[in-house]
Amino acid sequence: MIANAYQILYTIALIVLAIGCLMAMIRAIKGPRIADRVVAVNMIGTMTMLAIAVLSMALPHQSYLLDVCLIYVMISFLAVVVLSKIYITVHMDKQEKAQNANPMVSYAPTEDGEDPQTAAAIEEGTASPAAQSVQKGGC
User: Which helix (H) or strand (E) holds 28?
Assistant: First the structure.
């Protein structure tokens, strides 16, 4: 009687984990960002590990599944670390390319310490009041 109740509980747990894995798979495919995909892959790995642990409890004399579960956890962890490293590298390359495409305009102040761009904006009347105050020697 109790063994039958445990089998029902294990079956329900496996069904819930399978639904969770499917939902995480949809998030991994759909995105929208790479970080969402990495988290979804991590969730899939965690839920798979839980499913293996539940199976080791549900199947009699299958305790070796716990060893498989531990190995799977280590592989899943390494996969997330590698995906994170790839994501960081791609992100840094994109930032570097964007910075090279739009370098910041550098300028040199005039001999009296005035900023030529701000001085031109003040003359045109397009500078902000704060820039006008700073240019005139105010705080």
Answer: helix 2-30
Task: Return all residues near 136 (Cβ < 8 A) that are at least 6 apart.
Answer: none
DSSP 3-state helix, strand, coil percentages of the chain (rounded to 5)? 80, 0, 20
Class of the domain covering 2-104: mainly alpha
User: How does residue 18 score in pLDDT terms, banded at 50, 70 and 90?
Assistant: very high
Distance CA 113, CA 28 (A): 54
**107 CB-side CA count, 13 A:** 11
Question: Model's pTM, two decimal places?
Answer: 0.64
**pLDDT tens sequence across 49-81:** 999 999 999 998 888 999 999 999 999 999 989
What tokens appear for 10 in the block? 């294990």
| All structural domains of the chain with their residue ranges | 2-104, 106-139
Residue 31 is classified by DSSP as -
